[in-house]
Amino acid sequence: MQFEQQVEIATPAETVFSLYADVGTWAAWDPEVKESSIEGRFASGVTGALRPLKGPKTQIFFTEVTENRSFTVESRLPLCVMRFDHELSESPGRAVTRVTHRVSFIGLLSPFFGRLIGGQIRRGLPGTMLGLKRAAEERYP
Predict the structure, then answer these.
(1) Which residues of the chain have pLDDT under 50?
(2) Domain count for the chain
(3) Which DSSP string corresponds to the chain?
(4) pTM for this predicted structure
(5) Which of 2, 55, 101, 108 is least enclosed, having the fewest CB within 10 Å?
């Protein structure tokens, strides 16, 4: 199961990426996050924790971080991996960034977990994207 949401933000990609990199403040712009943390700097191979608004605290793994372009974080469930891809694509000659958030459930029990928690995540994505847009545009002069 996979789904995604996109939004255009009137800021350069660096501004959006700076919000991503400040993992401890994700709850300030993402209404679906109660708290989040990272063990080290924002980089590939680092671990952290996330407590969603509805659900238990879980360990997260930053599997890929490419400065000002993208990052991927994964959470392991029984016989399933929940992957969150975040991609930034800047419009040439304009300070506008297209942001894509993609959520995938991968593994033997992906249909089960996709039905169990996928709908809730899908319903929350528009609010997450709006919160990110507002925070980035407020930060950009």
Answers:
(1) none
(2) 1
(3) -EEEEEEEESS-HHHHHHHHH-GGGHHHH-TTEEEEEESSSS-TTEEEEEEESSS--EEEEEEEEETTTEEEEEEEETTEEEEEEEEEEEPTTSS-EEEEEEEEEESTTHHHHIIIIIHHHHHHHHHHHHHHHHHHHHH--
(4) 0.93
(5) 108
Give CA–CA dist 134/30, Å, rounded. 10
According to the model, what pLDDT value does residue 94 have? 77
How confident is the model at residue 79, as a pLDDT?
A: 97
**pLDDT given at position 69:** 97
* 64: CATH: 3.30.530.20
Query: Are β-strands 2-9 and 97-106 bridged in parallel, bridged antiparallel, or unpaired?
Result: antiparallel
Q: Say if residue 50 is exposed, middle or buried (CB neighbours under 10 Å; 0-12, 13-18, 19+).
A: buried
Report CA-CA distances (Å) from 119 to 3, 59, 67, 79: 10, 21, 30, 19
Structure confidence at residue 95 (pLDDT): 84
The whole-angstrom separation of Cα 8 and Cα 96 is 7
Measured in whole angstroms, how far is the alpha carbon of residue 21 from the centre of its chain?
11
Domain that holds residue 40: 2-139
